[in-house]
Amino acid sequence: MIIFDCNGVLVDSEQIAASVAAEELTRVGVPITPELVSRYFLGRRPADVFAAVEAAIKRKLPESFGAAVNRATLKRLRAELRAMPHAVHALTWLRGPKCVASSSPHDRIRASLETTDLTRFFDPYLFSASEVPNGKPAADLFLHAASRMNFRPSECIVVEDSPAGVTAATSAGMTAIGFVGGSHAGASLGQDLMAAGARTIVADMRHLKGTIVSLRGY
Fold first, then answer.
1. pLDDT tens figures, 72-108
2. 80 and 178 in contact (C-beta within 8 Å)?
3. Do 56 and 20 share a structural domain?
4. Pair 194, 124 in one domain
5. CA gyration radius for the chain?
6. Domain harbouring 75, CATH code
7. What angle do CA 115, 117, 122 make, to 5 degrees?
8. Range(s) of the domain holding residue 67
9. Contact by Cβ (8 Å): 202, 177
10. What is the pLDDT of residues 169-218, one digit of tens each?
C-alpha cells in the first residue's frame, strides 16, 4: 500500500499554510516569518504547532486562534491551491491500494483534494492526525492508516516531504520516500529527509512509480 502525505506532496500548499500561520501569529503579537514557520513546524499538526508556540512565548494564544487559522487557510487554499506538478500522472499509473495520511484536519484535507480534483484517487481513505493521540513525528497516524486499510506496516510505502513525516514513517516500520518537488523545498530538504530515514528521494512525481517498483523489487 502507498500512503501519501497531503501538504507538500499531493498539493503545493506548504507556502500558503506557512504564510497564513505567520500572518495570524503576528496579528496576535507573535511576530514570525513564513520561513521560520516552515523551518520549525513543517509536517506538524496545527494543535502541536500552537502548543509549541505557547511554550516558547510562555502564554496562551487566544481561544479562537486555531479556528481563525483554519478558516484563513481554507480560504487561501480554495483560491490559490494547485496540485503538485504531475500528481495526476503519478496517481493514474500507481495501481493498488493507496490513502492519504495528513497532519491537517479533515476539512482541510478534503478541501485541498477537492480544489485540485484529486479526491477521486483516494476517497474515502483520508486519515487525519486529529484521529490519533500523537501527531508526526510519532508513528500513530501511519499505524492508524495501515490498520484501517488492513495492511502490515512492512507492506506500506510512505511518500513524505517533511523530516517529521519521514521520522513517523520509519518509526512505524514503513519504507519512506522523501519528496522534494514542492515550491517550498529548499536546497537542504533532500539531505534532511535522508537523515530522517528516507530510503530515497524523488523530485518529480513522474518518477514515483519507477521508484516504488524499484523499492519493491519487481
1. 999 999 999 999 999 999 999 998 999 999 999 999 9
2. no
3. yes
4. yes
5. 16
6. 1.10.150.240
7. 115
8. 14-80
9. yes
10. 999 999 999 999 999 999 999 999 999 999 999 999 999 999 999 998 74
**At 98, which amino acid appears?**
K
Query: DSSP characters for 63-89?
Result: TTHHHHHHHHHHHHHHHH--BPTTHHH
Cell of 45: 499538526
Burial (Cβ within 10 Å: 0-12, 13-18, ≥19) of residue 14: buried
Identity of residue 48 = D
Among positive and negative, which fits the CA dihedral 13, 133, 121, 3?
Answer: positive
Q: What amino acid occupies position 106?
A: H
Which set of grid coordinates corresponds to residue 14? 506548504
Q: Which of 80, 106, 136 is the last residue of a domain?
A: 80
* Alpha-carbon separation of residue 152 from 19, 95, 146, 161, 173 (angstroms): 37, 18, 6, 22, 9
Q: What's the whole-model pTM score?
A: 0.93
Same domain flag for 203 and 163: yes
